[in-house]
Structures are given as C-alpha cells and as structure tokens.
Amino acid sequence: MRAGPDREHDDDRSGQTGVATKTRPKTKKPSLYRVLLLNDDYTPMEFVILILEQVFNKSREDATRIMWHVHNQGVGECGVYPYEVAETKVTQVMDAARRNSHPLQCVMEKQ
Tell me, what DSSP letter sits at residue 63? Predict the structure, then answer.
C-alpha cells in the first residue's frame, strides 16, 4: 500500500464495494384540526369579533363574517391548524372568555 495524497483507493483490498445509502424514515404530514366557535345567547358579538381578530389574526371583515356564520348556524370554523397550535388557540379563547365572564365555547376536531 502506498501512503500519500496521490494514493489510489483500492476497493478490492478493503473487501468493501458498493454505494453507501442512507434510508430516510418516511415522514407523514401532521394531522390537522379544525378550531370551531360555538354559538350561545349571551356572548356579545363584538367580543367574538375581537377574539377572531386577536387570536386567529382575522381581518375585521373576515371576523364579522365568521361571527355571523356562528350566530346563524350555531357553529363556525376559525381555522385549521396542527394539533399543538389548535390546542393553544382553543385555550386562548376559553381563557379570554372566562376572564371576561362570557360563556363562549371553542372546540377542536380532527379534520
């Protein structure tokens, strides 16, 4: 065997030939969850709009549209998120409603 930078690699002597490959585990997309507001007869519409703007980053126009949908249909979707994000948003809504003494309910369901 020769030493030095110009040494040729001899696969036959090392006993190892072939191409090294790495197997990558297949990653699947995280499950998504719908975050829903439920209508009640006591929470002020303006509070619902405020929640939609602050927690879900909706424009005033979109927040108003969603609020009317919740009011008229009994339930409305605020957004679709990975589990941890959806869970955080539900908690934020419920905490804000409780702090302001409103019975507003927010839930999440797997899409």
Answer: H
Rounded to two decimals, the pTM is 0.75
Collapsing DSSP to helix, strand or coil, 41 comes out as coil
- The total of other beta-carbon atoms located within 10 Å of residue 71's CB is 16
User: CA geometry: angle at 54 spanning 52 and 56, to 5°?
Assistant: 50
Tens place of pLDDT per residue across the chain (111 aa)? 555 555 555 555 556 666 767 777 788 888 999 999 999 999 999 999 999 999 999 999 999 999 999 999 999 999 999 999 999 999 999 999 999 999 999 999 999
Identify the CATH number of the domain in which residue 46 sits: 3.30.1390.10
The backbone region for 79, taken as left when phi is positive above 0, alpha when psi lies in -120 to 50, beta otherwise, is: left
User: Is 98 inside a domain boundary?
Assistant: yes
Contact (CB, 8 A) for 67 and 48? yes
